[in-house]
Amino acid sequence: MSDDPKGAPRYMGIPTFMRTPYTPDGKGLDIALAGVPYDGGVTNRPGARHGPRQIRDLSSLTRSIHHVSKLKPFDVARVGDVGDVPFTSVYDPEKTMDEITDFFSTIHKTGAMPLTAGGDHSITFPIMRAIASLKKPIGMVHVDAHTDTWGPFQGSKFHHGGPFRLAVEAGILDPKRTVQIGIRGAQNTDEGWNYSRDSGMRVIFMEEFTEIGVQAVIAEARRVVGDGPTYISFDVDGLDPIYAPGTGTPEIGGITTIEAQALLRGLGGLDLVGADVVEVSPPFDQTGNTAIVAATMMFEILCLLAERVSTR
Amino acid sequence: MSDDPKGAPRYMGIPTFMRTPYTPDGKGLDIALAGVPYDGGVTNRPGARHGPRQIRDLSSLTRSIHHVSKLKPFDVARVGDVGDVPFTSVYDPEKTMDEITDFFSTIHKTGAMPLTAGGDHSITFPIMRAIASLKKPIGMVHVDAHTDTWGPFQGSKFHHGGPFRLAVEAGILDPKRTVQIGIRGAQNTDEGWNYSRDSGMRVIFMEEFTEIGVQAVIAEARRVVGDGPTYISFDVDGLDPIYAPGTGTPEIGGITTIEAQALLRGLGGLDLVGADVVEVSPPFDQTGNTAIVAATMMFEILCLLAERVSTR
Amino acid sequence: MSDDPKGAPRYMGIPTFMRTPYTPDGKGLDIALAGVPYDGGVTNRPGARHGPRQIRDLSSLTRSIHHVSKLKPFDVARVGDVGDVPFTSVYDPEKTMDEITDFFSTIHKTGAMPLTAGGDHSITFPIMRAIASLKKPIGMVHVDAHTDTWGPFQGSKFHHGGPFRLAVEAGILDPKRTVQIGIRGAQNTDEGWNYSRDSGMRVIFMEEFTEIGVQAVIAEARRVVGDGPTYISFDVDGLDPIYAPGTGTPEIGGITTIEAQALLRGLGGLDLVGADVVEVSPPFDQTGNTAIVAATMMFEILCLLAERVSTR
Amino acid sequence: MSDDPKGAPRYMGIPTFMRTPYTPDGKGLDIALAGVPYDGGVTNRPGARHGPRQIRDLSSLTRSIHHVSKLKPFDVARVGDVGDVPFTSVYDPEKTMDEITDFFSTIHKTGAMPLTAGGDHSITFPIMRAIASLKKPIGMVHVDAHTDTWGPFQGSKFHHGGPFRLAVEAGILDPKRTVQIGIRGAQNTDEGWNYSRDSGMRVIFMEEFTEIGVQAVIAEARRVVGDGPTYISFDVDGLDPIYAPGTGTPEIGGITTIEAQALLRGLGGLDLVGADVVEVSPPFDQTGNTAIVAATMMFEILCLLAERVSTR
Amino acid sequence: MSDDPKGAPRYMGIPTFMRTPYTPDGKGLDIALAGVPYDGGVTNRPGARHGPRQIRDLSSLTRSIHHVSKLKPFDVARVGDVGDVPFTSVYDPEKTMDEITDFFSTIHKTGAMPLTAGGDHSITFPIMRAIASLKKPIGMVHVDAHTDTWGPFQGSKFHHGGPFRLAVEAGILDPKRTVQIGIRGAQNTDEGWNYSRDSGMRVIFMEEFTEIGVQAVIAEARRVVGDGPTYISFDVDGLDPIYAPGTGTPEIGGITTIEAQALLRGLGGLDLVGADVVEVSPPFDQTGNTAIVAATMMFEILCLLAERVSTR
Amino acid sequence: MSDDPKGAPRYMGIPTFMRTPYTPDGKGLDIALAGVPYDGGVTNRPGARHGPRQIRDLSSLTRSIHHVSKLKPFDVARVGDVGDVPFTSVYDPEKTMDEITDFFSTIHKTGAMPLTAGGDHSITFPIMRAIASLKKPIGMVHVDAHTDTWGPFQGSKFHHGGPFRLAVEAGILDPKRTVQIGIRGAQNTDEGWNYSRDSGMRVIFMEEFTEIGVQAVIAEARRVVGDGPTYISFDVDGLDPIYAPGTGTPEIGGITTIEAQALLRGLGGLDLVGADVVEVSPPFDQTGNTAIVAATMMFEILCLLAERVSTR
Question: What does each C-alpha distance from C210 to B258, C192, F224 come to in angstroms?
């Protein structure tokens, strides 16, 4: 955020992510803020295609000095908004997956780390494909109500309940370096739960989270991902729906924002390679709070990435 | 509506369309009320997949004696709710089109005329395919802001802007017996407008509607479709967005509900073969008025169909 | 409205109707603005009990010089807010009816004419009972989607669909001096329509209204009520739901606010004895526009009453 | 839920409770899901009459395997939707109470345990009357912000603040086997608090809940109800209004959904005889989250009932 | 709009006005789309400061070929988004007025005509000051519910009810070449009405508009402004609140969007020098329809300006 | 609240704060409930000018016996609603500050303690000026997400981010007896944080709050303010936005209402001299929950003030 800190009112101007400069080619950036306005993978309520717009708008509320770490991410890293994936085939999930990978591959080649606003969760698999092109497999800290390791639904494997199964099967994601946090809610089969467990992922159900507390969850997450390359995927439905009603598959009984902020702050020093915040569906977000929460989580993650940039 | 007319409060019970009996197989019905919860064909704002549910809920507000004609549709025709198309491949537009056709073919074989709640407008092409299996091509009275005769978008021809081009190309729809009413709004190309005109459709732009008035529009519509088999397709975005804010591609400056009701009432005596009301998107319909309007238009059309049934 | 006309911002202060002085005993008033927060008579969606509050709040938007007549109602008549009927038996419709009559009888004895904000339409019968104690029967100009002349529903005759049948049966309302304007919508029986017609009321269905226009409707209304004592009862569902979504039994295809304002302005010089605006249900009025419309209709009627006061 | 678990999208089809088969006569069911669309007992904001419809709609989000216990309630018990109480006298609270009792007596005779969606809390007394016909008095685990043991209000004893006083007075409910959890908020008299205490109920005010924690609350609840027949009555206003804004008498500072889920899961093995979830008022529930919460609490309770069925 | 006409979905990308290129310096533009996010001049409900953002977002719905004139404004004129006025003193109305004038003076010097999204109506005076620097006074077609020619309110003359009095007094606006259309609603004094009349403005009250019709209004507007330089100022509260609920001082009984579109289309060939659309207040615009209407009116005006550009 | 405790329904009547008598001159009151409908000091989203109205409306939900202390505040203290500050210069922040001070000075002279509903936080400085006229400086318990000790913004020092810096500089507020609770969120400079620290205020950031718990926070607050005169200033954005979405500058990760209630209850026995609850912005408060929370916090504070009154 290059504006004078006491400058213009925050409701002014063209809404880029966190009011960073619009930098379509990503050149010269350390961290690329990107949008993937796609919800073709949802299984129930759509609308996440409108997520990047609303997050951009409400991300103007974010500011530049983290109040705990006092880090100034825009001072220690070059941050810009690279715009949205330019889709040409939104009715074809497989082509769409490829276009997402192409877009992030281009960014990846500039050396910038991507921090993405979704879009439904199906977008994480093609982002990972782009990021993992050099060093793979990568690990993951995954916040979500669902494991997203289910098999095909309605004949497609590119739905938002399956990206991490695809990523493991493609050799991109290391299940043994994957931790899933906040999982909860009834399911119609136990297939996804079993896949996560059997492939070696560490699944921290919400009940365990509540019991052991966020500091223990942080310790466990750090233990699982270790010092290898790690991606953060933050599905807003991992939070309780009171924080994020604007989402496609809400599940009550989730993580608080205080816990989520603590969790993210506890991930400092990892070898982060990218991150996303997904499943914000503005048509179901009447107060805009879901987008505010998503933007603030992006800011928390931005600080982690900026710290990583500044120390490598 | 078989309940005692002064009976139970209208907010009670399982919400079928207009509180008609749930009749999944359609057996013994003259008119089949059906839902097609699909919005995979939209080009902008999704949500119409939730249309059938909300229309069912608010259709409880409709009643049984038409206040102008005094027709009692539930007395002169057997009317039931046949449920929704049981989709198995929602991510594959082409298969979805086939499943819609299969569902309506089954209904068609029972002899029932379908009156459908969408869903986005891409569903009308596969419904027509089912209906037109015996006598074809059929004519159409089409209320809409858009001609929906555009070519492929994002690589697909099964989007909600193209069903009537597909229907003409398939020999199902007779463009010379097609009238499009309420068309308006800027476009990025003139391709769809040209296709409608060049294929022989009668396009009544909104400006002409305003100038000549609804009675002249009715006369022109009747002249165009004549006494051949005719389908009514009613896109709620043909109405002004003040009546139907809950829709995917609103366009200001549209038809009033008084005009629309007059228009529908003016279609009595046509050889109707089916109808639909489409593009209700509940996530954008905060007051529910769009669904009330859609349910009432369905009731107006039901009276036309019931009159047709009772006189054949 | 006694404030300095260019004075305090309109969003300030205790919200009485149109910012008039709170005058609980009604002493010294020519016109008494009253609230009847009761919705125990609805047959479907409740919430009109909250109507007086929301109308009071948004009536701060009204001002003091009518822009067409240039009448200054607060200069030519003493106007005050007499508060709400102090209910003690809201679960007992019959006792509630009596309490409403008692309250308005007390006001009536002070010589003030009541202009009431409902509440559901069942409140008009007991108000009329109070007003008609001296000279009866009275005539009525009635704007509504429904005739409200139906018989018992769910065992009760004190529901919001029956007040005018009760009033005729009680000898309070002269059906031959009653005009019902804007009637429309399907019904489950034709009983109410028939009662209105058979008792001699002049029913102007919406279709006739649209055909003959508001000036002819005014002429007909004046012809019907003549120069006898006349009450105005304005149900906001007489308007199209786009103007008044916040109501219990919306019916599409109604009167516009421009027509309603013209209609009310056309009633000058009648021997008015009171009026009400009913069926505003705030829980269904998300924008507040229904309450703004109701407050403005109350202001239009206030000007009629003030003119009447100033000339008697 | 008899559908194929990976089957149709959840937004499809006629919305019965949890997509169970509509079984109006209740024959052959172990557990009967019922609706009581009545809000004639509220003391403030109405709307709960619309609760069953909205809960049915959003209960499609629930699924079939509990993620903690792994119980499959639809496998171990026959569950169906028996529809709503067919009211004939909604303006007469006493007759309405009788009709509710009649409806549930009929279900009770089939041997099915009822799990009911309200409606306001006045419905629990007549439900209990039906259930307690054989073995009485019964005990109760009651989650609520209010003790609902107040005397008459506005001349009626059948309001939503008094059902448990009525039940004790009728000898149906054993106050010594009754625990009230989550009580809080100012009152205008201390009569209800005193009644609960003096009759022997165990009242766990919210402050005690916060202090001792949910596990101690569970232990205390189990101690109070013991192994006698026990009913669960869950008023959504026991939850904090952030989880359940759509309710008539919200009271801040309430239970979290995580606590409520834990509490319900802690009631396994009791001799349960029925349950309800009440006070969902859709007009005040703009995001639908209240209904999602209510549906999920019904699912938690369903698992308890199903376990009870499977072990008796 | 330079994108390929059948290209990217309209919900994608950085939301500039009508998806035009962001051109902060305005260099090379024929028409400059600008935002003035200021509502410090409102007398009642604030929020118009958020107008430019929401209009930008929803202006993505507009497209590139006008469906009546077939004009392609982006082909015949160079159009860009110049961003928002960079305020530095938002608490000081007078300085703010100067900053607005400075911003538009800079644009004016590039030769671009401004088409502005407000902001409240107080912004039009300083915009006019910039535009009228060369040739003055200018004429105006003014659509509004209020004449906005009132004197000081709460001690300030820079409120949104006074810009045109200021402009006349400053010799910028020629009252004899000013037409005010859609005026209506009660006022607390007749000062503004009198000022408009006495200074020579032609005021077309809503009642006259309804009586003579839009074509006669167009003729009268053209007669008044003649062939001198003319500005268009479009306050969305000139429309009925059903079209524009999201505004600060709604007044029922206004212009329809069909009338407004016809009116604007009737202004072709005038010597236009700039235009604005003001008073969109997103916090009161829950459906977004106000912003859609405003964006579409901007598109209608853009076509007028583009035609003017292409013929000079 | 002087009504009969089991009396009239709470949705009835003219909405004064907590249904107390309207007492414009404040004579004879111990505690004066006042409104300051001003939001001219906000830096981002406006609307708090509408706060007093909405809080008055929803404060009808509060009642008269505190459920923990059993205190009956309306019995031990004379409480009335003194209305709103009668602004005459809302566009001039400095004059407005003076008018607020004048209003509260008048109340102060009657001997009543003010409990104020804002308005934005800039109003606290002028209120303090009035209160501190006799004994100063005063101490403060300040709940907020922001320290509000920033310097000028956009050229003004009277914005809502600076009141406590002004109060310290004016010698009214003793920074060493000031505790700020709930502070969090990124900032664009560290100036305000530093000012609070350097002037000697005790700042309890949210992270510390979470770590030490509310009882330790209470102890620390009591230690800081000691037994000198103390003001309570409660900004609803100190709460998490899930409790108070209707506010101008929401910041996620805040205090719960249970914690806030506990905190306030822990302040008994202090030498309280007044209090306020600020920053409720109804246009952003779609469910009304923010206003319910604010009204309930006012009730909690009222009990503190009433206890203070009863013991002095």
Answer: 9, 22, 73
pLDDT-based confidence at residue E1 (cuts at 50, 70, 90): very low
Q: Where does residue F304 rank: exposed (0-12), middle (13-18), buried (19+ CB within 10 A)?
A: buried
Asked if E236 and E294 touch (Cβ cutoff 8 Å), the reply is yes
Prediction ipTM score: 0.95
Contacts of F283 (CB under 8 A, 6+ apart): E45, E47, E283, E284, F47, F50, F246
- Chains with 3+ CB–CB pairs under 8 A to A are B, D, E, F
The model's pLDDT over F83-140, given as tens digits with 9 standing for 90+, comes to: 999 999 999 999 999 999 999 999 999 999 999 999 999 999 999 999 987 678 999 9
- List the single residue in B with minimal CA-CA distance to C152: B6
pLDDT at residue number F6: 53
- Could you tell me the CATH number of the domain that includes residue D225? 3.40.800.10
Nearest CB neighbour to B154, from listed A91, A155, A159: A91
Rg of chain F, C-alpha, whole Å: 18
pLDDT value of position B1 = 39
Average model confidence (pLDDT) across chain A: 95
| One-letter-per-residue 3-state SS of C223-280 | HHHCCCEEEEEEEHHHECCCCCCCCCCCCCCCECHHHHHHHHHCCCCCEEEEEEEECC
Q: How far apart are CA F164 and CA B44, in angstroms?
A: 48
Judge whether E168 is closer than 8 Å to chain C, CB to CB: no
CB-CB under 8 Å, A261 with F240:
no
Q: Are A36 and A100 in contact (CB under 8 A)?
A: yes
**Full-model pTM:** 0.97
- Residue count of chain E, please give it: 312
**pLDDT one-digit tens code per residue, D9-38:** 899 999 999 999 999 989 999 999 999 999
**Assigned domain for D33 exists:** yes
Determine what percent of chain B is predicted with pLDDT higher than 70: 97
Q: Is residue D1 predicted with pLDDT exceeding 50?
A: no
Structural domain containing residue B193:
17-311
Cβ contacts of D84 on chain B, cutoff 8 Å: 12-13
* pLDDT < 70 positions in chain C: 1-6, 134
- On chain A, the residues whose CB falls within 8 A of the CB of D70 are 190
Contact flag E67-B193 (C-beta cutoff 8 Å): yes
Q: Phi and psi at residue D179, in whole multiples of 5°?
A: -120, 130
- What whole-number distance in Å separates Cα of residue C15 and Cα of residue B262? 42
Beta-bridged to residue C269, according to DSSP, are: none
**What is the identity of the amino acid at B3?**
D
Average pLDDT along chain E? 95
Give the rounded distance of the alpha carbon of F92 from its chain centre: 23
User: How far is residue A113's CA from residue B139's CA, in Å, rounded to a whole number?
Assistant: 56
- Cβ atoms of C305 and C31 within 8 Å: the answer is yes
Kindly state whether residue D252 falls inside one of the protein's structural domains: yes
How many interchain CB pairs under 8 A, A with D? 68
- Specify the 3-state DSSP secondary structure of B63: coil
Determine contact, residues F196/A248, Cβ cutoff 8 Å.
no
Length of chain F: 312
The residue type at F120: D
List C-alpha distances in Å: A169 to A95, A225, A272: 19, 19, 22
Work out how many domains chain D is built from and give that number. 1
Q: Answer yes or no: is E12 within a domain.
A: no
Bond before A137 cis per omega within 30 degrees: yes
The tokens describing E206, both together, are: 């809503």
Q: Does residue E154 belong to the interface with chain C, where contact is any CB pair within 8 Å?
A: yes
> What does DSSP say about strands C31-36 and C79-84: parallel, antiparallel, or unpaired?
parallel
State the average pLDDT over residues B237-253: 97
The pLDDT score that the predictor gives to residue E204 is 98
Residue A294 lies in a domain: yes
